[in-house]
């Protein structure tokens, strides 16, 4: 089990920052970060630290060898070896059960499928290490001579558990030469508080409401249609606020110590197409598949037929990356279909519709996509879809559904505005407008100081006595 939210924020991270602040040089600070990162991983078992060390060693050695053999065949051999080995380790740990279960089903065999506990963050740090080795081969970065530096890059607990996926070129200079100032520390604290609040106050509440509307998935056939629609909506909100919350916290923690991680979300639910949605959702993952899979396969430069094949590969792998289950593959291919349709004709058609239509189209397509993402059993997915249209013999609504809706109506309305930039824009317009008077601007400055404190306190109070509730993307 990884750290609970309270233990992480008020003990682990606070202690890390305290020790970090006592160090005088970046090297000593880096030692502190590595020690705490090792402690973070070892919390779930020392064997996972050894796995991480081994994967870092493979790619570190490959980077050094590529530098030595640059321009020769042996450099290509080194990058291929590192990539294949890293993916093989990821595949064995993440997909062995999935592969063997399908073998059982296809051939009617009977044997015990080993249950492998997936190391936390392995999908993320594997991709970071792959990007490092490939970038060294391409000449975008130099092979790092220090194992310690590559290990810090891959293991830094701020973002290696659930992203964003950070490339070595983004932080290589800051590993050695980073500075902090009060303004950036303050900005980092505020960003961290926003993420903490989004996770605890919004995402966790959305999860509870989603479960309230569908308390027992085995009895889905009797759940009212309205309850199903609302449950899926709340899950849609939960996964956005949960995942973007972690990215906010990671970016905030980075700012506190001088690292500048790139944004990972840009209000994706306000997109006007599925292609745009994936430029705004999990940006670091999308850019990884673009730069290391799609473009090397030829991108869109070899005709529409080849482009469609390349997109199929990317979205098949995107789905499979998220989990060892066919529902994730279907989820990836579901988006592949709409992205291809947009390239062929749908985007032009959307551009000629009233402005509100593309927003509705994108929101609805993404909404139904999360059903594929959440439920592994295909039969359950079918029952969910049928139940939404009263095809299970279920009613449209019930007294309990209406009561629950009224109980959380205010929260649901707030959440439906919170995934847009509305609140951020209102704050800027009121408190940061050039024409705003001095008193209002001063009030805004005071709010910026009070806000993170209030959010963290409210979040902490809501977690007291609560059960362990890790971020959703920890499992990927």
Structure description:
By secondary structure, the chain is mainly alpha-helical. It contains 18 helices and no strands. Helix 8 (182-213) packs antiparallel against helix 16 (399-418), helix 11 crosses helix 12 (304-322) and helix 12 packs across helix 13. The two termini are 15 Å apart.
In summary, what is this structure?
The chain is mainly alpha-helical. Helix content is 72%, strand content 0%. Helix 3 runs parallel beside helix 5, helix 8 packs antiparallel against helix 9 and helix 9 runs parallel beside helix 16.
Mean pLDDT: 91
Query: How many domains, as an integer?
Result: 2
Number of helical segments with 4 or more residues: 18
C-alpha-based Rg, rounded? 24 Å
Can you write the helix and strand succession as a string? HHHHHHHHHHHHHHHHHH
Helix and strand arrangement:
Blueprint: H1 5-22, H2 26-42, H3 46-68, H4 73-107, H5 122-138, H6 147-155, H7 168-176, H8 182-213, H9 225-257, H10 274-280, H11 283-294, H12 304-322, H13 326-351, H14 356-374, H15 378-387, H16 399-418, H17 422-431, H18 438-463
Helix pairs in contact: 1-2, 2-6, 3-4, 3-5, 3-6, 4-5, 8-9, 8-16, 8-18, 9-14, 9-16, 11-12, 12-13, 13-14
Summary keywords:
2 domains, single chain, 72% helix, 18 helices, 476 residues
